[in-house]
Design brief:
187 residues, 3 helices, Peptide Deformylase, five-stranded antiparallel beta sheet
Length: 187
């Protein structure tokens, strides 16, 4: 069965605020299809991650799919990875604030504090247990998607509403920063 693009629910839909349930049978056809559908959906939406609750499915499952795109031009390239029933085992003491957006909260970016590195355990789509450390941008994606499994959105993590910006202003800021970096290299 071909993967399909799913509808991404937005802030206000109660599923986004629910605690997701453990995935009991990873090999179930519906779970395998959900993984494929989420992977296609996140790619089509120019996202770098998507959690099952964002498509109104309250399962503890998300996709980390970092790659450069229109929303995240500097994102590192990685193979889309299904993360099932994840746990955070440990994290760095260093916390870094950086800009995040969310497919379920279109049009807004926030400056969100996250751990620089996280040590995690999860089950992959083949039912194998994985233990890994994610750092920098990929650690940020992991923490953002992990939050979705507990009904938390990035807005809940902001230190101040002054750390919010529209997507349009964010894109202008990024364009200006790139121009400034290029101009300083030319001098």
């Amino acid at each position: 069965m071909a993967a399909e693009i799913l509808t991404i629910i937005e802030l206000g839909n109660p599923v986004l605020r629910q605690k997701a349930s453990l995935v009991e049978n990873i090999q179930d056809d519906r779970i395998q299809k959900l993984i494929d559908d989420l992977t296609v959906t996140v790619t089509k939406a120019n996202g770098v991650g998507i959690a099952a609750p964002q498509v109104a499915n309250a399962s503890r499952l998300f996709i980390v799919a970092s790659r450069p795109n229109a929303r995240y031009p500097k994102a590192p390239e990685m193979e889309p990875t299904a993360i099932i029933n994840p746990r955070i085992l440990g994290h760095s003491t260093e916390v870094v604030k950086d800009w995040e957006g969310c497919l379920s909260i279109p049009g807004i970016r926030g400056l969100v504090p996250r751990y620089q590195a996280v040590e995690v355990e999860y089950t992959d789509r083949h039912g194998k247990s994985q233990k890994q450390e994610f750092t920098n941008f990929v650690a940020r994606i992991f923490q953002h998607e992990y939050d979705h499994l507990d009904g938390v959105v990035f807005l809940d993590r902001l230190e101040s509403t002054l750390d919010l910006m529209t997507e349009q202003e964010y894109q202008k800021l990024m364009t200006n920063n790139t121009k400034n970096v290029n101009n300083s290299k030319e001098r």
